[in-house]
């Protein structure tokens, strides 16, 4: 590119560094780098405009092709922007007019030598006379503040800056910028939904993830870390887990989560599906059927007073609404006439202590509680003498065979069909426990309370289950990691 000098009556043309000639742009006004730098660069830009003195060049309007050649500087190039006292801080030679007189570089060099001599004198230790009095030091001329700067570039002025009065201001400005940078990084880390967003705030952790504390959240991450798939470098392992738990807990739309984590929708969808798979593999052992002696040893007082130690499980079914499938046959299979919606039904079993001990796979559409109970593996886990509790309306007495079955009604009565057990009102207060336990998972993880997309009910590749089955199982396992509702009620009473 051929450059042309914009100085009046200077017709130098050519390419950069051609024939020893160089061309330089007008200095920029650095408005956002601190007050002192802003004022200094503003003065310099104004000084260049005044030196060139052209009507078509103003402070706010300098065309990019307007440049100044090296002929107008003593050393053939502009001085470092911090050296305001340097003669080459602004072009001063051969300007084509007399309004700006050429600067005297010799005066600047003489001033610099005097300042250096003064520093050497100040560095010499003071001598003491025989009387112990301090000898008088010959006073030197007070240094000019501008003469603290050397005429060369930044490497040559390092030593000079250490002693100048202007350096203290520079250090203060640098410290201010460093502190501002630290705060901005801290704010950015929070907006990036990283660990700092939740650290030291267990209330926020519970709101976004359903877990009880940040320590529990990090414990889950540590467990998952070796097998968590790295499908994208855009998200850290913590963000992958956090994103997934937020979706389960708050059922936020995919696009909203994409905005929060500054990624695209596809990344969010892929990350959610892969992380759910990893969570299912690692956390499904948390939903297990306890041994009878463990069950009896941890039986809450309210159940012992009402039934002794016979209660094995509290059962209930809940339905999850799903989107309507485009395929008519698939749509008909999931339509429930009771709710007038497309649903999947799940059977859940909870111990008296409040831990989820069983969860079935999803059953499509108009299927009864009896059918789900009979065709799931729950009955295979019961032993003779076990007592099964269910809320009013959940009628499975014909399916439990010789096992005891108690139906907890609003009136407070219970009916046992395997043995003659007299009706009692002592279990009326247990209905509160049954209702709260059966609804604890859906209360904690809102995704189970709202309509899920049809894509979640598609079979998982190579597995005899659908993706929603994994989601329900993961939500149950995460619920078991939190304090039990029964234990909270016992503490309150």
Explain what this protein looks like in three dimensions.
There is one protein chain. Helix 9 packs across helix 16. Strand 6 and strand 7 form a beta hairpin. Among the domains are: 89 residues, no CATH class; 206 residues. Strands 5, 6, 7, 8, 9, 10 and 11 form a 7-stranded mixed sheet that branches. Strands 1-2 form a two-stranded antiparallel ribbon. A two-stranded antiparallel ribbon has the order 3-4. The radius of gyration is 40 Å and the shape is elongated. 40% of the residues lie in helices and 10% in strands. It is built from 17 helices and 11 strands. The protein has 493 residues and is of the alpha+beta class.
What keyword list fits this structure?
493 residues; two-stranded antiparallel sheet; elongated; 10% strand; alpha+beta
Task: Write a concise synopsis of the structure shown.
This protein has 493 residues and is α+β, with helices and mostly antiparallel strands. It is built from 17 helices and 11 strands. The model is unreliable at 125-161 and 406-426 (pLDDT under 50).
Helix amount, in percent? 25-40%
Strand count, sense and barrel status of the largest sheet are: 7 strands, mixed
The coarse overall form would be elongated
Mean pLDDT: 77
Number of helices: 17
| Class by alpha and beta content | alpha+beta
The N- and C-terminal alpha carbons lie at a distance of 86 Å
Order of helices and strands: EEEHEHHHHHHHHHHEHEEEEHHEEHHH
User: How many strand segments?
Assistant: 11
Rg (CA only): 40 Å
**Beta-strand proportion:** 5-15%
- Low-pLDDT segments: 125-161, 406-426
